[in-house]
Amino acid sequence: MAAAALCFRGFALSVSCFLLAVPLLMAQDPSNLSLEHYAKTCPNVEHVVRTEMECAVRDEPRNAALMLRLHFHDCFVQGCDGSVLLDDTATLIGEKQAEQNVNSLKGFELVDKIKEKLEAECPGTVSCADLLAIAARDATVLVGGPYWDVPVGRLDSKEASLDLANKDIPTPQQGLITLISKFWEKGLDATDMVALVGSHTIGFARCANFRERIYGDFEMTSKSNPASATYLSKLKEICPLDGGDDNISAMDSYTSSTFDNAYFETLIKGEGLLNSDQEMWSSIAGYSTADTVNKYWADPALFFKQFSNSMVKMGNITNPAGGEVRKSCRFVNT
């Protein structure tokens, strides 16, 4: 009964949220983020987000990976500003139709639900960008991953960029040098990259994103051992040469519902589902990244610590153009 009450979806928004004046735009400085930003204005923000995430992950464990991915794709375009959540309108083209978002980026309804609860608790106070950052942390913890304190105070962008989404978000087919460059452009180094890719331990990928890999060099990197051959056969059943683009497979074939360091073992065995991930181990340019993969597989505590640090570092990428606190994560305020 308690669980049902926590997951209850219907409630009315406070009328006061519609009476608030539209906040003034202000420049966003990452140094302004803090752990106390909502201490007086919305002290229950983390409790509200955590409660909704507990319901969502209990109902569908994949929701954890969805929220982590939303936060990542948000931060890689214009900074962590909630731009990934904006719907297309007559005057705005959003990022949801970008190559790495369309047909694969999900979880928007869950964001709506959390935002609705936050608006009822603290109208016009908590940004969608902060919602994503907190929810990504809670998602990680709820499936066995590490906890970290989330600095908050981000503003929501009033703009989105389909062009930047297509340009800046890493793709599964890109090589290691390109991937490292994309992370460097965001102020993240190769160590951050390997740690953040470790989140694929709870991720799923579409056939369209791993077909080239399994019909390409998978056998070579996995050295065609019998166990790998059996795994490859299963992947080809899921993802035929033609059709089935939206069929999915877990990226961690060992413990797909638990956040742990097992995904690094798949890379060491040459069984990484995505070419971009396997490159960190197999690329001739990947001496340092391969060494990091080894370390994270040998020492889960080290991986957890670096993952937490890298998530904070990524989360501190803000949009210098500033923004607002949206009442709806799908649309800018009017």
TrEMBL record:
Signal peptide start and end residues: 1-27
Native source organism of the sequence: Lolium perenne (Perennial ryegrass)
Main location: secreted
SUPFAM superfamilies, alphabetized: Heme-dependent peroxidases
EC number in record: 1.11.1.7
Protein name as it appears in the record: Peroxidase
Family per similarity comment: Belongs to the peroxidase family. Classical plant (class III) peroxidase subfamily.
Biological processes per GO annotation: hydrogen peroxide catabolic process; response to oxidative stress
PANTHER family for this protein: PEROXIDASE 11, PEROXIDASE 72-RELATED
Cofactor note: Binds 2 calcium ions per subunit. Binds 1 heme b (iron(II)-protoporphyrin IX) group per subunit.
Known cofactor(s): Ca(2+); heme b
Coiled-coil segments on the chain, per record: none
Residue pairs linked by disulfide bridges in the UniProt entry: 42-122, 75-80, 128-329, 207-239
GO molecular function: heme binding; lactoperoxidase activity; metal ion binding
Binding site for substrate: 170
Reactions this protein catalyses: 2 a phenolic donor + H2O2 = 2 a phenolic radical donor + 2 H2O
Positions of the Plant heme peroxidase family profile domain: 32-333
Gene3D superfamilies: 1.10.520.10, Peroxidase, domain 2
Annotated site (Transition state stabilizer): 69
